[in-house]
């Protein structure tokens, strides 16, 4: 996974230079510049579609399915941000609506994207969601259980599952 990561220090993009507006009165997040968002899009695409060793074409990424999904959602939001006149907040609301989600998810998109823009090692994780979803709906857990059951063969007893 580390060979697919973009360079961690991003020259020219710090917490001070990434913002295009002062902190809002409510203490909310500042919107990043369009250039910072464009740079993040390039880095997300590199993570999602790493180049093959030969230099031709793209290989499979080594990210977990959950992280891949979240990065694709962030990519949708950031593209809406740089190509529309809706601004940071409006673009997140439209992206969340497009993805079939609501206002809370739009806020999460802004949080994940800003964290990634400021530090390229900050990938969305499941820790914040584990209390709200069933572990059986988790694609990683589901695939681990499926692999285990397949390794047991045709005849499985209840003790094999414990």
Description:
The protein is mostly helical. It folds into two domains: 2-125, no CATH class; 133-162, no CATH class. 49% of the residues lie in helices and 0% in strands. It contains six helices and no strands. It has helices at 34-48, 65-83, 87-98, 103-118, 139-152, 158-161. The two termini are 32 Å apart.
Mean pLDDT: 76
Name the shape in a single word: globular
Strand content: under 5%
Largest sheet: none
Please tell me how large the radius of gyration is: 19 Å
Calculate the terminal CA-CA distance, rounded to whole Å.
32 Å
H/E topology pattern: HHHHHH
Tally of discrete structural domains: 2
Q: Percent helix among the residues? A: 40-55%
> Can you tell me the residue ranges where pLDDT is under 50 for at least 5 consecutive residues?
1-13, 20-25
The total beta strand count reads 0
- Total helical elements: 6
Structural class: mainly alpha
Write the layout of secondary structure elements.
Blueprint (H helix, E strand, L loop, with lengths): L33 H15 L16 H19 L3 H12 L4 H16 L20 H14 L5 H4 L1
Helix pairs in contact: 1-2, 2-3, 2-4, 3-4
Summarize the structure.
This protein has 162 residues and is an all-alpha fold. It is 49% helix and 0% strand.
Question: Which short descriptors sum up this protein?
Answer:
162 residues; 2 domains; 6 helices; 49% helix; 0% strand; disordered N terminus
């Amino acid at each position: 996974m580390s060979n697919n990561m973009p360079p961690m220090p991003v020259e020219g993009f710090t917490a001070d230079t990434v913002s295009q507006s002062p902190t809002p009165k409510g203490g909310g997040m500042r919107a990043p510049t369009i250039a910072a968002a464009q740079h993040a899009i390039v880095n997300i695409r590199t993570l999602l579609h790493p180049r093959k060793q030969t230099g031709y074409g793209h290989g499979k990424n080594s990210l977990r399915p959950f992280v891949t999904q979240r990065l694709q959602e962030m990519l949708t939001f950031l593209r809406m941000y740089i190509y529309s006149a809706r601004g940071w907040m409006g673009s997140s609301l439209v992206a969340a609506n497009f993805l079939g989600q609501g206002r809370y998810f739009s806020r999460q998109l802004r949080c994940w994207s800003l964290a990634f823009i400021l530090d390229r090692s900050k990938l969305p994780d499941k820790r914040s969601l584990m209390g709200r979803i069933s572990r059986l709906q988790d694609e990683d857990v589901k695939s681990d259980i499926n692999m285990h059951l397949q390794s047991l063969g045709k005849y499985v007893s209840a003790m094999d599952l414990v």
